[in-house]
Amino acid sequence: MPQERKIIISDNDPAFLQECQRALAKKGIRAVLVPRSGPELWTAILREEPQAVVCNLFMAGCDAVHIIEELRRLSSRSLPVFAALSTGGSDCLFQRFLEAGGSYLFIKPVDPTLLAVRMADILTPHTELSIPGHTQNNDSAAQAAAQMLRSVGVPAHLTGYRCLRTGLILLTREPDRFKKMQQLYEAIAAELGCSIRCVERNIRTAVEAACDRGDREIFSALFGSSVSRRTGKPKNVQFITALHEQLSCRVSAEK
């Protein structure tokens, strides 16, 4: 029997919580509703062991960052996916949220149907990008891209993971088509149904996550000469280029 998909949603608006619960139920996801309280959310997470948590960045008692950090410190289990609710204007805290292990930000007011769609997408294993023709080669490229992204520490639940994987497959299929990174962003956005700005931002977040969590030796071998001395991280274009070079060699060797 497949594991039940369960999400905890924490907020101080009962009507919003109930609408989210109904919307998620249509996606086959059970929502556990919790008041906007850090201590109550903490207790619910330990009790329910959800696959995902949607909560406010700021809560009574503690904030979302503190909860993520404490879960990582005290539990040997993998963290649930964390998505934040915010009224905006909290860029610094949201950056800390991402660095701690958060994955997504919803700006209030949030459409419960949209929230359900986004969370269902995050919790559902994604099918590989479908590219007409040469199915065997495409499957090989998709599998190699996914393996490579995981090996450098890009978390699979991040939207940036999907953007990077899609971009690598597109580059493998048509390497001469994309002379500029902007063209690749446009193609990724068209494939995934999002904006170019969203693609760029999500890839940047994924690169930062890889830098913070990935294997240092693998990362240094792949990106050592591309890492900025100022930031300690490669730029998007450097990250993608290095991975594409490795992926091309790997796929060619398998032909």
Describe the fold and architecture.
This protein has helices at residues 14-26, 38-48, 64-74, 91-100, 112-123, 135-151, 159-173, 181-192, 196-213, 216-223, 236-254; strands spanning 6-10, 30-34, 52-56, 81-86, 104-107. Helix content is 57%, strand content 10%. It contains 11 helices and 5 strands; from the N terminus they run βαβαβαβαβααααααα. Residues 126-138 have low confidence and may be disordered. The protein has 255 residues and is an alpha/beta fold. The chain folds into 2 domains: 6-123, Rossmann fold, CATH 3.40.50; 135-254, Arc Repressor Mutant, subunit A, CATH 1.10.10.
Task: Describe what is shown at a glance.
The chain folds into two domains: about 5-125, Rossmann fold, CATH 3.40.50.2300; about 135-255, Arc Repressor Mutant, subunit A.
Mean pLDDT: 79
Residue share in helices?
55-70%
CATH fold naming of the largest domain: Arc Repressor Mutant, subunit A
Determine the CATH superfamily of the largest domain.
Winged helix-like DNA-binding domain superfamily/Winged helix DNA-binding domain
CATH architecture annotation of the largest domain: Orthogonal Bundle
What is the helix/strand order?
EHEHEHEHEHHHHHHH
**The biggest beta sheet, please?**
5 strands, parallel
